[in-house]
Amino acid sequence: MFRRNILKLSVVTLVVLMAIGSTASAQTIWGVHNNGLPTQTIVRFNAATPGTLTTVGATGIASATFINSLDFNGPGNQLFLATNAVGAGFWFDVNQVTGAATNPRGSGLGADQLSDISWDYTGNRMLGLGISGVAGSGARLYSIVPATGAATLLGPITGFAPVNDGFGISLAVRPSDGRVFAHALETDRWYDINPGTLVATPLGVLPVDTNFGQGGTFDPASGTLFHAMLQTTGGNQSRLATINTTTGAPTFIAPNIGSISPGGLNQIGDIAIQIPEPASLSLLGLSGLALVRRRRA
Hints:
Elements: H1 2-25, E1 28-33, E2 39-46, E3 49-62, E4 67-72, E5 79-83, E6 91-94, E7 101-105, E8 113-120, E9 125-131, E10 139-144, E11 151-157, E12 168-173, E13 180-184, E14 189-193, E15 200-205, E16 215-218, E17 225-231, E18 237-243, E19 250-256, E20 268-273, H2 278-296
Antiparallel strand pairs: 1-2, 1-20, 2-3, 4-5, 5-6, 6-7, 8-9, 9-10, 10-11, 12-13, 13-14, 14-15, 16-17, 17-18, 18-19
């Protein structure tokens, strides 16, 4: 009887997992559109069909102050962005209805700027990737208080290869275990970073030349790593890809993200995926528990 009940529960939860995975394949991705207009905009698009953008609205931040970080926080499911401002005034709230960026604040970065942010489910914190923008100068990991934008240095990231990459541009924290992943421009590759030691292990080199602002994020429901990759071939076009977190290999999702502007530039500075309802995350945890028990029975 015990084995039969556990098997039944496992089948039910497997169906739930399949349903969640199906939803994730059509996941809505939020992005900041740095498209050369007077002000940058917040957009949304479907992960399966990234060629069509839905404009949420203008941030009110001029293109000269580049928005290179976007993510939701866990407790309140609020949306935040960070600009390339150095030292202070880089942190903003984002209105999810209008796209407007308000309440500028932030401190504690010193001479760094945030190149990307990512919510850490395991640590219940917002992490940020700090860089100076100088070749070979490396990158540093920060913890950020969303309410105030106050940044605390956690330490330098070591192990970028073959050089100490000073253009770490994308940051994504895996929801299941808090593992940190970063993408760097000098080396054109993703890195698997130990969150305790901040030692980076290089993954495979990307097959395209990545450059300028871009970003990555994990889908909290499926665990898929998405990368809004800006490639310089063909007029600086952002393309959506999923990244294999073991090999670093990308799988591109056609077509480009949105339509290409007359000037040939279509840049998505960063992407974010809204956190699922708590019930969905609970089901994920329950499913894993049920399957483990079945194996032991």
